[in-house]
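Exercise 7.
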Amino acid sequence: MKQEIDFIKVNPTQNMTILVKSNYSVEKYKDIASKMMAYDSVYAEQVGFIAKPANKQAAARLQMAGDEFCGNACMALAALIAAEKGLKQNDLTEIVLEVSGTDSLIMCQVKKTSDEYYCQVTMPIPKKIEQKTIKYDGNDLNIIIVRYQEFIHIVIEVDEFSKTVREKAQSLAKLLGVTLGAGLIGILLYNPDSYELAPLIYVPYLDSMIWERGCGSGTASIGAYLAWKKKGEIVAKIKQPGGTINVFATYDIEEITSLSIEGAVGIVAQGKAFIDVNQNNIVR
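Solution. The predicted structure, written as tokens, is:
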């Protein structure tokens, strides 16, 4: 039997995100997300579920389907909450979110423009950044490992985003997904000359691997890497297939001390999806 699922589809830098309002048990998130992300359904790169927060300071909890953290989904939910509050053009509001994949509350600043929302989001600080040379595919590969509480990003500097480079990145993501046991593996192909990023996000639990058109958390990791490399403050505009995301990072006394991103968000659709869901797992 088909079940109606209330959703909003949001566009943060073309990283198409579905936010689900329907209240289902966590055990069904994977199934619901997989079906809604499919080409023959609502179709998007990721799904987040809106839930009640445990912390009273937060306006809502964002629970990603793979229990990962997602910066763009934070911007998406913040924009939605601002819209529902009736934020007027050129007005500014601050929204606090509780988000999967981090113990820290996420502060979102939202400004309404003529036809979209401009969001700045505080991001989790990496636990560690380190440079390593690994043997991969018979060659030495220089990588930067950006470690977080629940996920790992690998920064690889490249001259081009060729098919061969992308295929190797996909194989590496699969390998690391098996060996590291992280909830999310991001392979961030970065051209330092042009400030271009091609982000590959792999969520082992969902077996979801996507070349994202825009990646908020990946942009934050690039910013953290650049600040770590410079040993100081950076402000950068990181170009991605779906547009540009700005990143701000500060470094002091051997660690990243602040990290935030900002970008444009559009609310593009709202409605009901019809998918098969086990009725025993519905929580009303």
